[in-house]
Amino acid sequence: MSGANRQIRLAGRPVGDVRPEDWEHVTAPADAPGEGRFAGRTRFISLDPAMRGWLDDRPSYLPPVGLGEVMRAGSVIEVTESNHPDFKPGDHVVGTFGVQEYVVSDGRGAVKVDPSLAPLPTYLGALGMPGMTAYFGLLDVGALREGETVVVSGAAGAVGTLVGQIAKVKGCRVIGIAGGPEKCAMLTEELGFDAAVDYRTEDVRAALRTHAPDGIDVYFDNVGGDILDAALARLAMHARVVVCGAISQYNNETAVQGPSNYLSLLVRRARMEGFVVFDYAPRFREAAKELAGWIAAGRIKVKEHVVRGTVDDFPDTLQMLFRGENVGKLVLELA
Amino acid sequence: MSGANRQIRLAGRPVGDVRPEDWEHVTAPADAPGEGRFAGRTRFISLDPAMRGWLDDRPSYLPPVGLGEVMRAGSVIEVTESNHPDFKPGDHVVGTFGVQEYVVSDGRGAVKVDPSLAPLPTYLGALGMPGMTAYFGLLDVGALREGETVVVSGAAGAVGTLVGQIAKVKGCRVIGIAGGPEKCAMLTEELGFDAAVDYRTEDVRAALRTHAPDGIDVYFDNVGGDILDAALARLAMHARVVVCGAISQYNNETAVQGPSNYLSLLVRRARMEGFVVFDYAPRFREAAKELAGWIAAGRIKVKEHVVRGTVDDFPDTLQMLFRGENVGKLVLELA
Questions:
Q1: DSSP H helical segments within A57-157, as ranges?
Q2: Strand, helix or coil at B279?
């Protein structure tokens, strides 16, 4: 391979919302792969709420993306040229390859995937990090038991759609919190949620009182802010609050809004626990196998939101997450 | 027994600080005990931060004290007259007998104690609810392990002094947060804490960086507010935050200040968990025995703050807790 490699690099550190000028659109040379390496063309790029955190220069579970570096992203590539024994042209490979058209890799962290078993975007969604996040967050951190009441926020998102459906597989009552009547209808009519709450028009606290009359056993939080407080006010005894994310707070210019109702952890003998999905890497294969089985059996419906474009569309596409414009897993498919 | 029984009853529901007019000072008749009952004279009344929560009319782990009711309080009484087979005149008994000079009881929830084994106030402190709270909160909820780093706020209080000393018995590094140089000196010089932080004059976050360079494994929180946030910013991986109380927030007229740094639970794969000591009642005897052993061996020093007065001094004495004027367990001894 030779030619041009269009890339999106981090140009500045955003304060609050990410601005167009925080990105640099660069055309770099597309180098041929050296010994022990392979090259590939990017097919699908994952867009994740966690990306906002990677832009801040502060200690977290991963180092921040450096200024001038290609933006970190998971993607599916198709191998075009290889000097690596394990990868051959035509293979599809998932890895953290960044927001760029062409990739050269030594294979570390790269996993071959089979497009005949699942559509390629699914390897970035239900069978990728969002799937692992939902699975381990709900079952391991949340310690979900059959018959419990589960509430998930960001319910129409990549992780939320899976959390709710896994909980249904496990015989639980599931209430999703999402923004807008279309998303809410999708949750109950298509994905089998028992109830959905539209946080844009409903009083979430009152709605949870209605839909979870005996309290919430597991609250899976993707959003933080007022919705977290509403859920804390409705915890059942010995409830578990799974802290997965806080998308309502990621673009704050001021401090994160802490949960004012956290003392209900005391009254309800409850716990709030965070996790990072990468810690479960040794068990990813086991989880993916179980999820694939549920998908094959029609017990879990995969929701993907595919935007077609070029890497130059990455910044605008990323903003869709923070405006709540995606349904299910958001991916950018390179034309 | 016949005569007068001076009582403190709840007259109004405070908003923010408790005001003198929220209490009614009443002289009721001191009735003789009927069949199956005993009567006693109150010797020591317990004063606890949790009392503030009992005054609010909202659902909690106990029903609120009703308007016009004798204020709920733990106390030690001396039996003066008995028609109950298990209690005889001269016995000392601990129970939730309320803020009053004379008590009539059917014996439910009453426990005989032996003043030759421990001073009577100790049955309201290290061998009473504060002892149970420290013991189960630290060892069970906090799941403390030898060699870990423990931080406790409200460290000079009834629970805090015990949490730190139990952690030392368990071979841990202990940092106490308290208000004022005298309390801090007491923690390190008398009680064996490894370090003390004076939140009134020090930058707590910077001090924790110094004293807990490898992070906090267990943070036992009695205060909430900014100090909780400072501790959350210093959590070690897989840390446990024990939510015992939030005295800094109990007199708020506005919403409780939620912990802005709660997302470090995610980064640090940590958990924050609440508990109510009464849940451990079946194990109180076991804990009291172990605590009594440590006290007898000189491994735990009991700190008690005895105010001598009458039941009419209860309202003023209670305020000492919220002004941080007590060291160790605060009790009112009736003259």
A1: 129-136
A2: helix
Per the CB < 8 A criterion, the answer to whether B131 and B162 are in contact is: yes
pLDDT of residue A183: 98
User: If you measure CA to CA, which chain A residue comes closest to B142?
Assistant: A271
Phi, psi of A65 (to 5 degrees): -65, 130
Residue-wise pLDDT for B48-76, tens only, equals: 999 999 999 988 889 999 999 999 999 99
Structure tokens at A293: 């089985």
pLDDT for residue B1: 45
Scanning every residue of chain B, which has its alpha carbon at the shortest distance from the alpha carbon of A265?
A: B274
Q: Is residue B189 part of a domain?
A: yes
Does residue B252 carry a pLDDT above 90?
no
Same domain, A109 and A186: no
**DSSP code string of B112-161:** EE-TTTS-GGGGTTTTSHHHHHHHHIIIIIS---TT-EEEEESTTBHHHH
Q: What CATH number corresponds to the domain at position B270?
A: 3.40.50.720
Express each pLDDT in B160-212 by its tens digit. Answer: 999 999 999 999 999 999 999 999 999 999 999 999 999 999 999 999 999 99
Query: Which chain B residues contact residue A224 at CB under 8 A?
Result: 263
Task: Give the contacts of A238 (CB within 8 A, at least 6 positions apart).
Answer: A217, A268, A269, A270
Confidence of residue A1 (pLDDT cuts 50, 70, 90): very low
Same domain membership, residue A115 and residue A22: yes
Q: Which domain holds residue A210?
A: 129-278
Grade residue A2 by pLDDT with cuts at 50, 70 and 90.
low
Q: Which residues from chain A sit within 8 angstroms of residue B244, using beta carbons?
A: 266
Which residue among B240, B262, B278 closes a domain?
B278
B15 or B37, higher pLDDT: B37
Query: How many residues belong to chain B?
Result: 335
Chain B residues interacting with chain A (CB cutoff of 8 angstroms): 59-61, 224, 229, 243-246, 249, 255-276, 279
DSSP A266-308: HHTT-EEEE--GGGGGGGHHHHHHHHHHHHHTTSS---EEEEE
Confidence of residue A3 (pLDDT cuts 50, 70, 90): confident
Of B229, B255, B271, nearest to A271 by CB-CB distance is B271
CATH of the domain at B33: 3.90.180.10
- For residue B58, what are the CA distances in angstroms to A267, B77, B80, B249? 11, 30, 37, 16
* Distance set, CA B298 to CA A259, B125, B190, B302, B334 (Å): 41, 16, 12, 9, 29
Q: Give the DSSP H or E segment for B306.
A: strand B304-309
Cα–Cα distance measured from residue A29 to residue A25, given in angstroms and rounded to the nearest whole number: 13
Please name the member of B245, B263, B270 whose beta carbon is closest to the beta carbon of A256. Answer: B263
As for the ipTM of the complex, it is: 0.92
